[in-house]
Design goal:
This is Nitrate reductase. With 91 residues, the protein is of the alpha+beta class. The chain has one domain. Helix content is 27%, strand content 23%. It contains two helices and three strands.
Length: 91
């Protein structure tokens, strides 16, 4: 367990899902090689959050402030259409 894991272990499946979502974000936003994408999942107590969690997308473009988008679903429930809809706030 890592120093900053706060007692939780990252599931291997989430790492794979995170990479898939990040790749789709890169394609949809036409990001450059030097731009970065971070995908994470946090607990969500709102009934609107499917799977009891929401997926957070951080987009860090070189020379710009970091922008965030949220998908009110656990990572394993996110589909391509959800990613596109979630990214509308970044365009």
């Amino acid at each position: 367990m890592g120093l900053f894991s706060l007692g939780r272990r990252r599931e291997p499946r989430n790492a794979e899902l995170s990479r898939r979502i990040a790749a789709e974000v890169r394609t949809l936003l036409e990001l450059a090689e030097e731009d970065a994408v971070s995908i994470s999942q946090i607990d969500c107590g709102d009934a609107a959050c499917a799977g009891g969690a929401e997926t957070i997308i951080l987009v860090m473009r070189k020379g710009q402030r970091t922008k965030a988008a949220k998908i009110p679903k656990a990572m394993h429930l996110v589909e391509d259409g959800d990613i596109e809809a979630g990214l509308k706030v970044l365009r």
